Amino acid sequence: MRKLLRFLLILFLCLSAAASAQQGYKPSESNLKAREHFKDMKFGMFIHWGIYSTLGDGEWVMDIKKIPYNDYKRLADFFNPQAFNAKEWVDLAKRAGMKYITVTSRHHDGFSMFDTKQSDYNIVKATPYKKDPMKELAEECQKQGIELRFYYSLLDWGRADYAFKSPIVNGAPEKGDWNSYINFMKAQLTELITNYPGVKGIWFDGHWDRKNANWHYDEIYGLIHKLGPDIMIGNNHHLAPIPGEDFQAFEKDLPGNNKTGFSGDAKIGELPLETCETMNGSWGFNINDRNYKSVKELVHYLVNAAGLDANFLLNVGPMPNGKIQPEFVDTLGKIGAWIDKNGETIYGTRGTVVKAQTWGTLTAKAKTVYAHLLNPVKEGNQILIPGFKVKPKSVTAFNGGAKLKYKKDKTGLIVHLDQLPADEIDRIIKITY
Ligand code: FHN
After folding, report:
1. Which is nearest to 28 in space by CA: 190, 240, 244, 269?
2. pTM of the entire predicted model
3. Mind listing the domains of the chain with CATH numbers?
4. Alpha-carbon separation of residue 404 from 17, 409, 416, 420 (angstroms)
5. Quick check: 308 and 352 in contact, CB under 8 A?
6. Where is the Glycoside hydrolase family 29 N-terminal domain (predicted)?
7. 3-class DSSP state for residue 201?
8. pLDDT for the residue 380
9. Rounded to a whole number, what is the distance in angstroms from the first to the last CA of the chain?
10. Residue 430 reports pLDDT greater than 60
């Protein structure tokens, strides 16, 4: 009975989200091309940056520490990131092997990190900095051939028209002015798409705050696709994709897992996949969070995501002065060094060739398969790639090229590992056929 109720609830949530979706959406040729390119890129940098960084306590600090909105707003008075340098950020992303950047243009605190005519609560009007870092970033990304995407929060803790915590009645908050809020978002999204060169994606977040509201996705997604048919829309609503979306976002979980509890309702759909994760435990700068993930953990995340055909969006939370903290810079440099050597086995590959195995996972490109041995091999010095049907032309160690002995039988391909060099992070076998 409880299972049935849960199923009905999920169905209701999906249907109510889909009801306002861009029904009948047919992606343009350029959008389909963008999706393939997106899948090829594999690795991106997520950036959570806002006035909250001044408190060094993450991007939820206003809500968690119960700071009244009007007091929180004062943070803008002393947000002055004099050391921000777009070139440094883009250089770092490139050095790490990342091919795109997704940056918070406006998070749940409602502060716009870009020049907007729709609200004075923005970095140009409300801070002593007075400049638009998103403009600089967009221009630098274009210069260096990195794609730029904007994170955009649907949830707003402060605006009167959003009326945070107001109950939803007939798809809209009882208090506030829902139409005004939807129009505000549409106007800001228009600015983000038309004023910043080369924007390739919009990453929505916050839907889960109002699961049963009518978000007018038909209008919002329709507008975005009208302004930029190739712009890819993703929405971290923790549900299966709804019509009008171009990629499916997962948070802190590989597709198919649900360690966070966010992905329970998110069946894997047909769209390109992306999963995001933090370098410590925080999205926004957190001065007290020293729970840094190791290079090995993060490379494994990237490889496992690729094995599941998903991109990996790895987050940094820049400091209030605009710099990215040295611990992140160091780790990203080391990930970049790994990718320099092994990028062939990641970029442009596709996953889910064979299901992940206890020893690791597989990626594939044209007539080549890469087996990534991420974990110790359990029995004997060999692995089985189950269901491998074709006859290999060559089976070699990716690193050094040593020939590996193999046998094909009805269970799949058995590869002997004696000649496969040891590696702390990933022992890769290259199989051509
Ligand atoms: O609440 C946000 C959080 O601050 C962060 O932006 C992450 C990124 O995936 N998404 C939300 C939680 O689902």
Report:
1. 244
2. 0.96
3. 2-345 (3.20.20.80), 360-432 (2.60.40.1180)
4. 51, 16, 6, 7
5. yes
6. 15-344
7. strand
8. 87
9. 51
10. yes
